Task: inverse folding
């Protein structure tokens, strides 16, 4: 599929398909309920207690493959914590944030800006975010111009979504902020213009696969990330 519209189904069909898939996954024990939190017994048993969340296609959610989520999380830990000692924001990028929480050795100044309130299980590290209102961030406005690293995965490939998400990024970014955008290659020209980034050779993978070609865009190069220009 080369056009984003090809990904869309009618609201009724999409809801029915999502409900069927989630029921099948729950029946097979592949997905835990979003509200599932660690218990004393599960912690003592060494079982993975990280909350699991199923994709909500009505919110245009497409989870990263675990290897991509870990790659992003490791970069965040390095750039925002190890090197810069500054806060990191994950904008509409919950699976990378969750992976960071799995990997961190101690408390990390990391925040998830996300519309889906299921992730409020992460307490003060969750910031309710609606890209339609890019600067309505509540008390999180205190972080204006302070973010050392921002990961972004805009939920839609539409110009309105990308433009408003870019406003949020500009508002939060420190002068030396490392910006990483994971989105479709088809919108590369607009993404480069709005976020002042370039496409890299890294191609994100998604848990259930996507027909559209995705790329990681950055405003910097490193030994792992080289611009594809």
Result:
């Amino acid at each position: 599929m080369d056009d984003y519209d090809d990904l869309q189904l009618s609201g009724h069909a999409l809801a029915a398909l999502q409900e069927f898939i989630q029921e099948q996954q729950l029946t097979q024990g592949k997905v835990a309920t979003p509200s599932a939190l660690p218990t004393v017994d599960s912690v003592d048993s060494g079982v993975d207690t990280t909350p699991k969340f199923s994709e909500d296609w009505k919110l245009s959610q497409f989870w990263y493959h675990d290897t991509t989520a870990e790659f992003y999380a490791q970069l965040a830990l390095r750039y925002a914590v190890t090197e810069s000692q500054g806060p990191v924001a994950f904008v509409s990028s919950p699976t990378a944030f969750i992976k960071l929480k799995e990997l961190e050795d101690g408390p990390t100044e990391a925040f998830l800006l996300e519309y889906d309130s299921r992730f409020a299980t992460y307490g003060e590290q969750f910031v309710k975010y609606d890209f339609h209102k890019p600067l309505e961030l509540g008390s999180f406005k205190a972080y204006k111009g302070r973010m050392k690293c921002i990961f972004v995965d805009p939920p839609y490939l539409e110009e309105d979504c990308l433009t408003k998400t870019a406003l949020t990024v500009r508002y939060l970014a420190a002068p030396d902020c490392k910006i990483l955008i994971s989105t479709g290659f088809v919108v590369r020209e607009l993404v480069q213009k709005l976020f002042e980034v370039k496409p890299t050779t890294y191609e994100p993978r998604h848990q259930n696969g996507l027909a559209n070609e995705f790329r990681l865009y950055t405003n910097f190069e490193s030994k792992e990330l080289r611009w594809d220009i």
Q: What stands out?
A: The helical segments are 11-27, 40-45, 66-83, 94-103, 159-172, 188-195. Residues 188 and 199 are 7 Å apart (CA to CA).
